[in-house]
Sequence to fold (89 residues):
Amino acid sequence: MCRNIKTLFNFAPPATDEEIQAAALQFVRKLSGFNKPSKVNEAAFNLAVSEVAVVAQKLLNTLETQAEPRNRIVEMERARIKSAKRFRT
Fold:
């Protein structure tokens, strides 16, 4: 599950709210062991996702770097090439 959490810091353009929310969801899924929680756990699960997303956004807003922002398209192409090499059929 955590393989789906992508690096969100230092990209141009910055990470969107949707990307942060998706990373928070994957993180809570990994911690809880639930892909989809039961009805009794749904409120706690959703609250955790929301809180993790808020903290993640705060983190991204406060991190600093002197490195140039990475280009999303270039990084996606690198990941595609790496995946193709890894899962060569």
Observations:
- The chain has one domain: 2-86.
